[in-house]
Amino acid sequence: MKHGFKMRPFVVLVALFLMVAGIAAPTSAADEAEKVRFVSVAWTGVTIKTELSKAILESLGYEAESLDVSVPIVYEALATDEADVFLGNWMPSMESIAKPYFEKGKVVKYVANMEGAKYTLAVPTYVAEAGVVHFKDLDPSKEKFEGGRIYGIEEGNDGNKIIEYMIEKDMYGLGDWEILPSSEPAMLSQVKAFAKNRKFIVFLGWSPHPMNKNIDMTYLDGSTPDTFGPNNGSATIYTNLRPGFAEANPNLARFFKQLVFPIPMMNDIMDILNKDKSAEPGPAALKWIAARPEIYRPWLEGVKTRDGKKDGVEVFEAFLTSRS
């Protein structure tokens, strides 16, 4: 008993020495999640980020899964330990949904993964050339817009909620307008159909997205901090985590902290998907980054395989080579 008592502080002292000396003690695999649970929304950009991240983590020995839901359910899932990671927190447009979770500590905002994005109302350019360039120009041309319709995306989406708020508050005279929720593909199909006949239509637009190349469109001025944000809908996209995820999974936390997506990258991959309807987001993204180590190596700097034994960059590059 006396001998055992003396050994215990010795072990503690060794651990303290390793910490002070900067030598990393071996990390048990049990300290890292076996499976990473992504929660996503059915938007092209978020899907690309999610599927690419899953593939990278699977190459490092993790299991990964994702579930597509609406924005409000994203935050309930993160807050109730039903999901771990969300890569599509558009701010400030999602502020009304996400901010209460951040403030109460139910969801961790974590880190920006894309800057310089945009999210606001848009019209085909011929509509802008006809004089509709600002939110305030919509109502005077109401009858041309099917008597006052704004095309949104899926129910519960933050952009839809902003439009609903603008209607509720009769901002810019939109009090008697209506929003038509839809899916992203259905909304864009409607825009293209209207554009073919040069009919007036106003819709939710965002960048990065192939719509910016495939539709001759113009973003409207007029956004404010309580609508789509200042600077006419300029947005920053954040990675969100469930509480405790980063602390329990330092290797994954490092990866997600370093995971930043340049807008030109997203535009290129989206364009690939748009031109090749048989292409899938994950494989298309992997093919794109395989030729650009300057993009993915910073993501994996200092990141290890799940068992902590191998360098993440080397393992991922071997994975890419095996696919070529």
Descriptive keywords:
single chain; 324 residues; alpha/beta; D-Maltodextrin-Binding Protein, domain 2; 2 domains; two-stranded parallel ribbon; 9 strands; 45% helix; disordered N terminus
Helix proportion: 40-55%
Give the DSSP E fraction (strand runs of 2 or more residues): 15-25%
- The second-level CATH architecture of the largest domain is 3-Layer(aba) Sandwich
> What shape does the CA trace take?
globular
Question: How would you sum up the major sheet?
Answer: 7 strands, mixed
Name of the top-level CATH class of the largest domain: Alpha Beta
Classification by helices and strands: alpha/beta
- pLDDT < 50 stretches: 1-31
* Number of separate domains: 2
CATH H level of the largest domain: which superfamily? Periplasmic binding protein-like II
Taking all Cα atoms into account, the compactness measure Rg is: 23 Å
Q: Kindly identify the CATH topology of the largest domain.
A: D-Maltodextrin-Binding Protein, domain 2
**Averaged pLDDT:** 90
Number of distinct helices: 15
Tell me the number of strands.
9
Order of helices and strands: HEHEHEHEHEHEHEHEHEHHHHHH
First-to-last CA distance: 60 Å
